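Researcher: Please translate sequence to structure tokens.
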Amino acid sequence: MQDNAAWRVRFRERWQRAGAEAEALFASSPSVTTPPPPAPDPPWEPERDLRVVIGGDYRTETVVTATPQERREHTLLLGKTGTGKSNLMLWLMWQDMAAGRGFVALDPHGKLIDDVLRLVPPERRDDVIYLDAADEDFPFGLNLFEAPRSVTPVSKARMVSQLLQVFDKCWAGGFSGTAEGVLKSVCQTYLDNRAGTLAAIPKLLTDRDYREAFYPRISDPNTLIEWRRITSSTGKSTGMLKNEEIDPVMRRLNKFVGNPIVRNIMGQEKTTLDFPRWMAEHKIVVIKIPDNDSDGVGKDAAQLLATVILQLILRAAYGREIDSTLYSVYCDEFQHYVTGDIPEMIQNIRKYGVGLFLATQSFSNIKEEAIRTALLGVGTLLCFQLTDPDARIVAGEFRRGVPLDDDWRIEQKRVHQNGAWYVQSERKYHRPTRGEIASRLANLRGLVGAGHCLAKVGGREHVLKIVNMDPLVRAGTGVSRARIVQRSRERYCHPRWEVERELREALWPDTDDAAAREDRAGMVPVVAVALDDAGTGGVFTPGAPAAPPAPPPPARHTRRRRVIAPLPEGEGEGVEGLEPF
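Model: Translation complete:
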């Protein structure tokens, strides 16, 4: 194909010609004399448009599609920077939105999310949920230790294992056995009490009275033994923990808890990210987690937040019914937050209707050999131009690779016929070697041009031309981005002053009231400008420091908020109050 416009014109012509042939066949049918009455509109079903177009084969100009079953078997996208990975992800997400399907998109940079918001169809603007981790004024809630009421001991043990993998991923160089024992005790203690946040861990390790209030409800005796083990010899009277036991944990935790953005997000008792409900309602969830230090949350904080969010998504996937409607999870630069249980997830979550779409620049960022093997076993493999080491790894997954004219060679052989010898020429196909396939992958742009990728879809190999989405992004759909942002803030976020006040009351209840009022007066409240009918307003601007924040909007629904410290044993599960969300 020469360009995207010509490819789209040919695709439209084929589609119209197929419709005309179907109508002609119906008109010439002798068994039908009058057209049947129009059928009623079918119930809304996101999978009625079953296939998604990936691209067009650059040799045959045929459209290459992927079925929902192939998408459930997950997709791996590889390619160097600037080769077209984000453009391909945007093309697939645009088709999902147009077909009524839902998905989650995690982006560590932010540009991909901004482009998605420009392509939202007007009829689906109410289905979009926008979350920005760098939004200091309206943080969403994300609690590592929030557990359902009906959790079983086996599920609780699995959650502890997942939490330890999260800490191990975000712990530079991994943690020692001592630190692992301390963190395991913390996780088990908080899950048994259904209380506690990441921001409260330092208080749990340093405040004896606060820690001992959790003991009556700890169900695992090994956790109590571990707490007694790490208590110092003088702890019989003071209850202090050994410095050599908790110092490594405290130093690493301060890297996260000391970040005000992470503290306000992960210090909330209630997680506002309801992935089970969003999956059931086919919501479009776009989450921006910028990892730069200038206008983002920082690399370490972004890695922690993305890892926790991915674990929540997978936990929600396990709660779905088998063979549920397809729900895709797009993860850009996933090597920053993939954990060691990714092989198990790739094998198990496909039967629950969740398809992963994982994009990365290089395999060199993934050290574990088991993860590499699992990723190469996905159902769909898409490769843009790769580095030489990555090309050698991926080359074994293809049989033909990039087809070239040189693969067809003229072979001559001597043939004896009618008492004479003749030279006979024959054109034969020679399968390229693994080294030749790797060399072509490393030089893909030079061989077939920019915007092409080598694809393996359902066992079939193609070199695909990808649709350029820049014209569509520039045109947009007219949906107000500010309206989407304001709606998401009202429903799933809380004002910063409210979150910091709750943290102060829960973690530092003895703080002087005058000092608390002074801190609050120094904060810059955020005033929401009302949107006009055209949706052109909605810009959030700082107000006067001394003015109180605007009252919250009318409650859409309510949420339950618990105190961080549990009640003593025998006094119920805790006091719960309903507050406007």
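Researcher: Any highlights?
Model: The first helix runs from residue 4 to 27.
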